[in-house]
């Protein structure tokens, strides 16, 4: 018998290197390590190898890793040392852009537990060609210049400017340390303990400048007081500035550092962890446009050797239709109250002002937050985007719906002999009340001028629930507003208009109806534009061709009729907006007092409203709402403030 014994063939070097390349593409550094030469393994342990190169790739943001190796068609002969060399090419995307290079790998045949095998002689240049044994990489962000926000006239609302960084030099305090800390803490409005924590950081030396807080150079009194304290110094830094401060805070928002839970989200967008993001207002809304693209540079640590570099792309500037001076003037009128105001050009749709009060200084948000976070008037809330009960400012809309449906005859006088009314006994003890009226025979003009609740309650009942809801929806109730700044959606009723009392109350703006000050402003454009509701605009580039948000909401005839009636609200001596008189200024408008109460018949908080438009030029319409006016004259308190704004404009 003849026995044939087979012997296994040694693995080919190109097959071994192809396996290595496959593991490399998958960034499987553990399997790669197993294929390295014994000499390499003597100098670096497996866990060190794996963690080192995983971290380099991870920190560099390596994606789309490609290693191009083509197996030779002909047999490769070993060199005089018995080694074989294969060329290969590497390409990848990193934080700092694309990296591509060519290199060579040396394979050595070594004895293993399974016989002879080819092993790879590892070289750190496989990762990056600039990298030598023992060297590390440094990855540094290049922050883009954030885009700025300007008003319609080019005035800065959120800009990049020179700021002062206030700090102390510990070695210069000497025996005055306690006094210096107390004085500095008081002026900077921070705690003494907070300053002490910063002074106790590990890197701080006697001659170190320890930064404490950024201050506005325009506050010269504060800066001079600080610099008069021994050891207190300043450094010039570039930072975000909000020149209009509190008056535009809710519009602009502010910047802040990222929270831990946000880091991953923004790192995926290419941000560095040290960058700030928009935290509210337009800084947040337009974060992507304003931020730009972070640049990155990957270097060999401790050297000037650049592995890759991607320059930053600066953010885009944004120009608004806002008039910063008007914004500031409106805020001056509102600043001591809790409320909101929106100003628009009703012919073009341009938003001219969006104001909320009380407010905060976005130039120093952290200090402001500590001081005001418990304020019941909610200074950090942008009230112009929130829902409120409109009260009588809704009556022109009810009038329009009644005219549309033919249920209101504008010339017909309705007999309303008393200041209380109910449809019938089924309403129990509930009565609609109106403010004392000079008229007992009331037509549409008188009902609007004197703000007659009973007239509009009856009008809503005559219209009917279905048509009333449909009519309000023609004014964009229940519809999300196509507007850059997020605004809540106005609503009519919580669970449908399911009873007559609710319908009657809704007719004069009570019930469950809620609308935002912004939306309310645009509903009144129907009466200025021949029945069309203009589309809201906030970005200046969009203002060129005004367009309608809603067309033919009412007929041109009915729109003009209601507009003339709104003039009487201000011009009629018995009109609710007659006082204070403003000679030389002709306005059309509507007042409103919204009652907020837990149950029918109760006395509750009252919010005052006034919507007014320049009746001649028709280029400025202002909506203003002020909370808690019940002991301050109701809506009349608001009327005087709005008229002051129009007078200042003349």
TrEMBL record:
- Keyword hit for Membrane: yes
Which positions fall inside the Penicillin-binding protein dimerisation domain? 142-301
User: Top-level EC class, please?
Assistant: hydrolase
Task: Give the location in the cell.
Answer: Membrane
Reaction catalyzed: Preferential cleavage: (Ac)2-L-Lys-D-Ala-|-D-Ala. Also transpeptidation of peptidyl-alanyl moieties that are N-acyl substituents of D-alanine
Domain Penicillin-binding protein transpeptidase, chain residue ranges per copy: 339-646
Keyword DNA repair recorded? no
Instruction: List the keywords (alphabetical).
Output: Membrane
The Gene Ontology terms for molecular function here are: penicillin binding; peptidoglycan L,D-transpeptidase activity; serine-type D-Ala-D-Ala carboxypeptidase activity
Q: Where is the NTF2-like N-terminal transpeptidase domain?
A: 12-134
Which Enzyme Commission number(s) are listed? 3.4.16.4
Q: Name one GO biological process term.
A: cell wall organization
Question: Which SUPFAM superfamilies does its entry note?
Answer: beta-lactamase/transpeptidase-like (SSF56601), NTF2-like (SSF54427), Penicillin binding protein dimerisation domain (SSF56519)
Q: State any GO CC term.
A: plasma membrane
Q: In which pathway does it act?
A: Cell wall biogenesis; peptidoglycan biosynthesis
Xref: InterPro entries: Beta-lactam/transpept, Beta-lactam/transpept-like, MecA_N, NTF2-like_dom_sf, PBP_dimer, PBP_dimer_sf, PCN-bd_Tpept
Family according to the record: Belongs to the transpeptidase family.
Query: What is the name attached to this protein's record?
Result: serine-type D-Ala-D-Ala carboxypeptidase
Q: Per the UniProt entry, what species is this protein from, by scientific name? A: Aeribacillus pallidus
Which classification does the entry list for the species? Bacteria, Bacillati, Bacillota, Bacilli, Bacillales
